[in-house]
Automatic annotation (TrEMBL):
Compositional bias ranges of the Low complexity kind: 255-271
PROSITE patterns xref list: TAT
Positions of region (Disordered): 243-282
Annotated coiled-coil segments of the chain: none
Pfam family, one: DUF1501
Name of this protein: DUF1501 domain-containing protein
């Protein structure tokens, strides 16, 4: 039995031990509410990072409607100035982004233009790895916010484990690489219920996960993680299984115990998913809305978390882009607008800044399938009550291109350095490299 158990734990560690080996864990809503009572959020900024997987077409999100080169490059995909939502400088927002347009008008949306990194890579995997690790020149094994977590733990080595675990939270079924450090990692919080194995299999797994003094450090960590699965599943079942008394209030204000899996109610003016033909249907915030509902609940409850990671996928629009992107941007708009409404009047909400990015934009010219292929630079959105709305960075030229791609005008690490220092009140050097200096932006 010891030999078989050792082989089992090694296999478990290889296939599923990233979060365990890095110190991450799975938290229940009960854990979060307990933390909000014992160590409530007090002062300081909160950063919410929204990752758009697939490569969002920035030219059809922040639209250069007055530039004739825009329509010439993509005549079927282009939006006219009359269709889009006007900003300034000849630019406009995608017609599905009505909620974000309202934030722009109230000076709470910043658009950082032409964001990218040196020597761009068209690979989803490599480009996303660069954005999540903030290491364009080397292959890094830690995320940029994971290194921030490592620095926090080093600065406060005597902090209770519950405090350390709650510094960052990754919402959803997977732990985002950007919040995995060398010695610490964000806690993972699901948006729905899950079950641990039951019956004979469950009994056998419980035996295999029992602590053993002969275990090495990694095996002990994997065994502990496996045992926690059963504890967490048991605690989550009564919380996530009952939806009738946990739905969102009609006003759009989120209760601390709200179940994000319950049917969402859009905030006033939010535009949801695009339906057939690309028309927008109000109120469909999708899975991103469920994730941000969890974040809003934590913030309103005073959970002492400084960083949240959420995501929305599907932006790899090689074919029939217009309807697909309209649907996804509608979900993004509905989710972000509802989130801002939920935290807007809460005392903790004033310190929240939300950052929205994708691994790359798309090429300027449309392809033959009414879509666009992998590109380079794209806009980054920053929103919140502390944000100084407006444009930052230069708008890339649509005619002075790099082999059909936009030339980046803002290094993405300038965005990261800015939020590290001005939202998280932390030194950027330990995260981005002490030898590097990137101009700080003034959106916060």
């Amino acid at each position: 039995m010891p030999f078989d158990r050792r082989r089992f734990l090694i296999a478990s560690g290889v296939t599923g031990g990233l979060a365990a080996a890095a110190g991450g864990g799975v938290l229940t809503y009960r854990d979060l509410h307990h933390a909000s009572t014992e160590q409530p959020l007090a002062g300081g900024g909160v950063l919410v990072v929204v990752t758009l997987y697939g490569g969002n077409d920035g030219l059809n999100m922040v639209i250069p409607a007055d530039d004739p080169a825009y329509r010439a490059a993509r005549p079927e995909l282009a939006y006219s100035a009359g269709e889009a939502l006007p900003l300034s400088d000849g630019l406009a927002l995608h017609p599905a982004l009505t909620g974000l347009h309202g934030l722009w008008n109230s000076h709470r949306l910043a658009i950082v233009r032409g964001v990218g990194y040196p020597k761009p890579d068209h690979s989803h995997f490599r480009s996303m790895a660069i954005w999540q690790t903030a290491s364009p020149d080397t292959v890094a094994t830690t995320g940029w916010l994971g290194r921030w977590l490592d620095a926090q733990a080093k600065a406060d080595p005597k902090a209770a484990s519950s405090v350390t675990a709650l510094r960052a939270i990754s919402i959803g079924p997977t732990l985002a690489p950007l919040v995995v450090g060398a010695s610490t990692a964000a806690a993972a919080v699901p948006t729905g219920s899950f079950k641990a194995p039951a019956g004979a299999l469950g009994q056998e797994l419980n035996l295999l996960y029992r602590p053993d003094r002969a275990d090495g450090p990694l095996a002990a960590r994997v065994a502990s993680s496996g045992a926690d699965l059963f504890t967490v599943a048991g605690a989550l079942a009564p919380v996530l299984g009952t939806k009738s008394d946990q739905t969102q209030a009609p006003t759009g204000q989120l209760d601390a115990g709200a179940d994000p899996a319950a049917g969402p109610t859009a905030a006033a003016g939010a535009t949801g998913a695009a339906g057939k033909g690309g028309t927008a249907a109000k109120g469909d915030a999708g899975e991103l809305g469920a994730q941000l509902d969890v974040v809003a609940a934590c913030i309103r409850a005073g959970v002492p978390t400084r960083v949240y990671s959420v995501n929305l996928g599907g932006f790899d629009t090689h074919t029939e882009e217009k309807a697909t992107q309209a649907r996804l941007l509608g979900q993004l708009d509905a989710a972000l607008t509802r989130f801002q409404s939920a935290i807007g009047t809460d005392p903790h909400g004033a310190g929240v800044t939300t950052l929205v990015y994708s691994e790359f934009g798309r090429r300027v010219a449309a392809n033959a399938n009414n879509g666009t292929d992998h590109g380079t630079a794209a806009p980054v959105l920053v929103l919140g009550s502390r944000v100084r709305g407006g444009f930052y960075g230069d708008q890339p030229s649509l005619t002075n291109l790099d082999d059909g791609d936009l030339k980046a005008s803002t290094d993405f690490r300038s965005v990261y350095a800015t939020v590290l220092e001005r939202v998280l009140a932390s030194e950027a050097g330990p995260v981005l490299g002490s030898g590097e200096h990137f101009p700080r932006l003034t959106f916060v």
